[in-house]
Amino acid sequence: MSVTFPLLIDGRWRAGARDRILAVINPATGDRIGDVALAERADLDEALAAAERGLAEWSAVSPWQRGALLKKAADLLRADAEDAARTMTLEQGKPLAEARAEVLRSADFLEWGGEEARRISGRMIQGREAAQSIQVETHPIGVVAAFTPWNFPMALAAKKFAGALGAGCSIICKPSEETPGSAIALARALLGAGVPQAAIAIVFGEPAEVSSYLIPARAVAKITFTGSIPVGKLLASAAGQVMKPVTMELGGHAPTIVCGDVDPEKAADFLARAKFANSGQICLSPTRFFVEESVRARFTARMVEHARAWRVGDGLDPQTQMGPLASERRVEAVSKLVEDARDRGAIVAAGGERLGNRGFFYAPTILTDVPDEAAILREEPFGPVAPILPFSDEEAMLAAANGLEFGLSAYVFTGDAARQKRLKDALQFGAIGINDVVSHPPDVPLGGWKESGYGTEGGIEILEPYQKVKFVSLR
Ligand code: NAD
């Protein structure tokens, strides 16, 4: 059977053993753009056996050569950027310009992982006695099982491929079934560059079925996941049962502190763009806007102006500033949070509704007068919704900002250097923007604090999650 979005197992693009498929939907139209193949246990067994062979083969390739192949894959991906971006927009909804940027960022990750491969080294330690010395070696950790989401369907997989392949590991990735084409384009570039066929696999399936089979599988040595905190806890528990190391990149609920000394219109111009990027479906998205009372009215007015004027539409239209949400499920989740806030007394100053009767569009939304008990102040909105929370007491604001289980990113807008330092030091988050909102370039280690996860991805540490250490005492 031929299927639009096949599995990749041992170098073969193919359907699953029982030909199970799932429709892939264009979120801008609701139309089916194709089907994705779903894997059975027999398929996963094949992927595991191939990955063990792939590990032996790939880890024997010198790190310099691995680096060269990853650089080549990055170049192939760059050359394919237009097609890959179009695929991404069709399956995920984001504007084409954002999709293009994501493909290029994915290529940068592959290249960065390859460059770091060239710097793999061990060290020698003096023994306690003259005749003794200790050698510390780094080795690829083994077969990696990776689970990646739909919001950045290529970049979040590329980070894991870059680290795992750079370190010399083979990798089986289960991307989201809702956005299969982007991971497929990534894998095609890797194969095209000459990464051994057995070293990479792409499997789709029923997520819980696949993860509960791969995590305890004897061949798998490392689990890496990007997604929601509840699913992260599930996978980390399963990994704990078999004592396998895990990297968890989970959700955020970023406090965004706008202080009274800034130009509120300028801050709103900058933050509206950050808020509505990828329709707010970004773990680093600004989500709780703590605005100092003296600039609250002007900041809110400008945000409302932007929300009303923002051009929402099909991501393929070059005029579009914001695409649809990725799925009907996300429209329901975002609507529920906004309705809950409204029911509890919040004012919907802009948006607050689904747009049109085709596709999964939701209006850019600004909420004011949001009561403490509103669910949106505790649950990550993962949508184009900005609750504005006035403050005048910095200490109380900080307590609220730090008061959730999330610890991914936080933003501070002020020109006052002392205040920048005070707030930066007090915020319990893994990434801070000062007069800035963070994205994730490959040369930076990103990792959440608290329940936003553990471990980091990227930076000069990009290979570490995929390495194990052996020390050898020589006498
Ligand atoms: P969800 O919790 O149902 O799924 C999140 C991701 O995990 C999806 O890609 C899904 O395919 C996968 N998944 C679900 N159950 C799994 C299992 N048992 N084993 C393996 N993978 C599994 O949520 P959703 O509706 O898809 O996304 C909404 C929430 O997810 C958001 O609120 C956000 O918190 C979170 N999220 C975070 C990121 C991130 O970058 N950290 C990315 C996407 C989603």
UniProtKB/TrEMBL annotation:
Residues 13-472 form the Aldehyde dehydrogenase domain. It holds the Pfam family Aldedh. Transmembrane segments: none annotated. The keyword NAD does not apply. Keywords: Oxidoreductase. InterPro entries: Ald_DH/histidinol_DH, Ald_DH_C, Ald_DH_N, Aldehyde_DH_dom, Aldehyde_DH_Superfamily. One of its GO terms (molecular function) is succinate-semialdehyde dehydrogenase (NAD+) activity. It comes from the Bacteria. GO terms for biological process: gamma-aminobutyric acid catabolic process. The keyword Oxidoreductase applies. Belongs to the aldehyde dehydrogenase family. This is Succinate-semialdehyde dehydrogenase/glutarate-semialdehyde dehydrogenase.
